[in-house]
Amino acid sequence: DIIKNIRSDASEYGRLMAYYRCAIMEVETKFNVLNVELSRGRESNPIETIKSRLKSPESIVEKLQRKNIPMDVASIEKNLFDIAGVRVICAFQEDIYMLADSLAKQDDVKVLEVKDYIKHPKDNGYRSLHLIVEIPIFLLNEKRFMKVEVQLRTIAMDFWASLEHKIRYKKNLQMYDEYSEISDRLKQCADQSAALDNMMDETHKMIIGLKKRNEEE
Ligand code: 0O2
């Protein structure tokens, strides 16, 4: 039934996905522009990399089922806000908040939701700043507002999340005796990555302080 519904809606589905691709390009451009602007006067760029993805049809179907949402294209657009995902990997934690603030201030960007898993990490140790934003895309004869999920992370947060995603996320491990040891180990890795981020931030601040002192002397 699911496949039948989506198939009968195939051209609508394809069109919606094309719009989300355009929205991803818009948001990526916004971050690339901010990266150029914020790099002036610094030795390094605040953004290390940007990784974007369109949610796969399998993942969309899984989420619709899990959340009891009807399987049609209109419901996908109305209820799922992470079809378009832009992940911004930053050098330092303070860059994350600076970039998020700059994006939020742009007058064509509407921030619909903020989840700060850095100030409030998930129980398993997951850290990242998530924003759901709505931005306009300009088509031939219309302007369309599209939602994009932006995830901002440091390299250390991305290292942990990428490996955890590979080895555990969404796998049903609860049934095994080793589950609690695996969770503890991953949580310890998350704590160590948070400690690394804090030490790097402090060291960065020390170096900036030294540079300032040098300029004043
Ligand atoms: P993928 O494969 O990255 O696309 P829900 O999506 O219903 O679970 P919600 O409220 O929409 O929940 O999402 P939330 O909490 O803002 O986070 C969703 C996304 O954040 C996930 O997308 C992951 O990318 C990332 N994420 C959240 N928690 C974890 C975690 O514990 N470990 C890792 N590695 N990533 C996490 P998807 O669509 O689930 O996955």
Q: Which helices and strands occur, and which strands form pairs?
A:
Blueprint: H1 2-8, H2 10-39, E1 47-54, H3 57-66, H4 73-79, E2 84-90, H5 93-105, E3 110-116, E4 129-138, E5 143-154, H6 155-167, H7 179-216
Parallel strand pairs: 2-5
Antiparallel strand pairs: 1-2, 3-4, 4-5
Report on the structure:
One of its GO terms (biological process) is guanosine tetraphosphate biosynthetic process. This is RelA/SpoT domain-containing protein. InterPro entries: GTP_Pyrophosphokinase (IPR052366), NT_sf (IPR043519), RelA_SpoT (IPR007685). Pfam families: RelA_SpoT. The chain is 54% helix and 20% strand. The chain has one domain: Beta Polymerase, domain 2 (2-Layer Sandwich). The protein has helices spanning 2-8, 10-39, 57-66, 73-79, 93-105, 155-167, 179-216, and strands at residues 47-54, 84-90, 110-116, 129-138, 143-154. The N and C termini lie far apart (74 Å). The chain is of the alpha+beta class and 217 residues long. The longest helix is centred in the last third of the chain and has 38 residues, at 179-216. It has a 5-stranded mixed beta sheet. Bound molecules: ligand 0O2. The site of ligand 0O2 has 12 residues, from helix 6.
Gist of the model:
This protein has seven helices and five strands.
Question: What is the total domain count?
Answer: 1
Bound molecules: ligand 0O2
The CATH homology group name: Beta Polymerase, domain 2
Please give the CATH architecture: 2-Layer Sandwich
- Order of adjacent strands in the largest pleated sheet: 1-2-5-4-3
- Span between termini: 74 Å
Count the DSSP helices: 7
Using only C-alpha atoms, the radius of gyration works out to 20 Å
CATH topology type:
Beta Polymerase, domain 2
> What coarse outline follows from CA principal-axis ratios?
flat
The CATH class label is Alpha Beta
Structural class computed from helices and strand pairing: alpha+beta
Strand content: 15-25%
Q: What is the number of E strands?
A: 5
Give the helices and strands as they follow along the chain: HHEHHEHEEEHH
What's the story with the biggest beta sheet? 5 strands, mixed
Averaging pLDDT over every residue, what do you get? 91
Protein name: RelA/SpoT domain-containing protein
Pfam families: RelA_SpoT (PF04607)
GO biological process, one term: guanosine tetraphosphate biosynthetic process
Pathway: Purine metabolism; ppGpp biosynthesis; ppGpp from GTP: step 1/2
